[in-house]
Amino acid sequence: MSATSRRRPLPKTLAFTCGDPAGVGPRAALASIRAGALPRGVSPLLVGDAAVWRAAGRRPSDGPVLDTRLGLPVPRSGRPTADGGRLSAASFEAALTAAARGLAGGIVTAPISKSSWAEAGYPWRDHTERLAGFAGRPDAQMILGVPSRGLWCAIATRHIPLKDVPGALGAREIAACARDLREALVLLGRRSPRLALCGLNPHAGEGG
After folding, report:
1. What is the pLDDT of residues 152-168, one digit of tens each?
2. Which of 28, 119, 154, 195 could form a disulfide with 82 if both were Cys (CB 3.0 to 4.6 A apart)?
3. Which of 110, 138, 166 is the last residue of a domain?
């Protein structure tokens, strides 16, 4: 990335995916917009089939729709389906494209159904895996935080049984996770972030 591209301001638009149309995704996205969760001057862009947003009760004041135009029927609530997976995956892909083309400064992902994505034949298990591949960073980490308390964390393992966690963690994996967390915190404006390593055992020891 050049110095010029780093200085280029991001568009003050956030792309909201619809998530799984059979779940709470579309309604949750609309509720957050109506609750005034966006910073002043930031506008929402609703991404996904217009029929999905319509079924969720979208109003013109909620923002424009980037219609993925799959034309599939909106699934009934409460049951994962292949069509639901296709609709939510298309929404996510369109949001990624919008961000890559500079039409959005970031993406807000509504909840998905992993089983729906699998039924639809979408080759990614979750948002994080797809984002890592899209960005060319296969070692990318999920960063979670409570900004009001200055608390952030990165997860070193994902999608494996708890019994397999000890064998999956080594110095290399932990160091890579720490580097990604530090990089994210610096981008968020923390000049000298302090990192703490949680013990695998919540007690971090049993006194011998």
Report:
1. 888 888 778 888 988 98
2. 119
3. 138
